[in-house]
Amino acid sequence: MNRNFGKWFLTRVKKAIIEHNMIENGDKIAVGVSGGKDSSTLLYILDLLRKYSPWKFDIVAINVDLGWEMDLSPLSQFCKDHEIPLEIVKTDIARVVFDIRKEPNPCSLCSRMRRGALDSAAVELGCNKVALAHHADDLIETLLLNLIFTGRFDTFEPTTYMSRKKVTLIRPLIYLSEKTVKSIAKSQNLPIIESPCPAAGKTKREEMTKLLDQMDRIFPSARENILAAIRRKDFFCQKPE
Predict the structure, then answer these.
(1) Which of these, 192, 93, 203, lies nearest to 138 by C-alpha position?
(2) Structural domain boundaries enclosing 14
(3) What is the per-residue pLDDT across 6-18, written as a single tens digit (0 to 9) for each?
(4) Taking a C-beta distance cutoff of 8 angstroms, is the pair 127, 167 a contact?
(5) In this structure, are residues 52 and 14 in contact, taking their beta carbons and an 8 Å threshold?
(6) Which stretches of the chain are assigned E, i.e. beta strand?
């Protein structure tokens, strides 16, 4: 790992953790891993922090198998090499969403079902926190989606206590751009497994990504300035789910 680059991205992750009280000593954190670049980067960073930061916590990787019959061996090998427990939760979410329900807009239902399976597995494994790999671009895109399609100036919370499951959801990558996440995944040769989902690349979120790219071409600091606006202390209210 390039020492200067590593110090920079870990500094931003630590800032998010401290500002939003994401990690405490004694935590057992379930890390949702799909095999994509974002979740592999999250797993890699949390592994670094548990080994080299003042926080003393444990992690367990949880993959919710949607039923696509994906080859998870690269992820399994990464977890084995880094001594990270990996739990694979078998589901038929893909069949329910695409074959039974035939959802015209499948992402919302799939996301809810996947999250439900992840949260339940985390509780069964004795975890008190669940970490998701949403980064700064996801934070901004969600803001734009809500603003454009629902008329609400709102996005997801960095930390959310889920009272029904009695676990806390955390998003440690929210101050890292997608560009940075891609760079980390590439430089560290992290396992990346291609998603076979037929809806991949065809969602409203992808349209927001293109919109942000356009804005950045016209105003090069657009992403950073929007993120700075979101980071204002009065924006997040940390309400329970």
Answers:
(1) 203
(2) 3-230
(3) 568 999 999 999 9
(4) yes
(5) no
(6) 28-32, 58-65, 86-90, 129-131, 159-162, 167-170
Pair 131, 50: CB distance under 8 Å: no
> What is the Cα 35 distance to its own chain's centre?
11
In a domain, 35, yes or no: yes
Q: Residue 236: inside a domain, yes or no?
A: no
The residue type at 36: G
CB 154 within 8 A of CB 226: no
* Paired strand residues for 138: none
CA 194 to chain centre: 16
What CATH number corresponds to the domain at position 65? 3.40.50.620
Structural domain includes residue 216:
yes
> Is 181 part of a structural domain of the chain?
yes
Let me know: does 123 contact 167? Beta carbons within 8 Å.
yes
Q: What is the pTM of this model?
A: 0.90
Segment 13-32, tens digit of pLDDT: 999 999 999 999 999 999 99
The token pair that represents 69 in the structure block: 């019959």
Q: Which H helix or E strand runs over 19?
A: helix 3-19
Classified as helix, coil or strand, 89 is strand
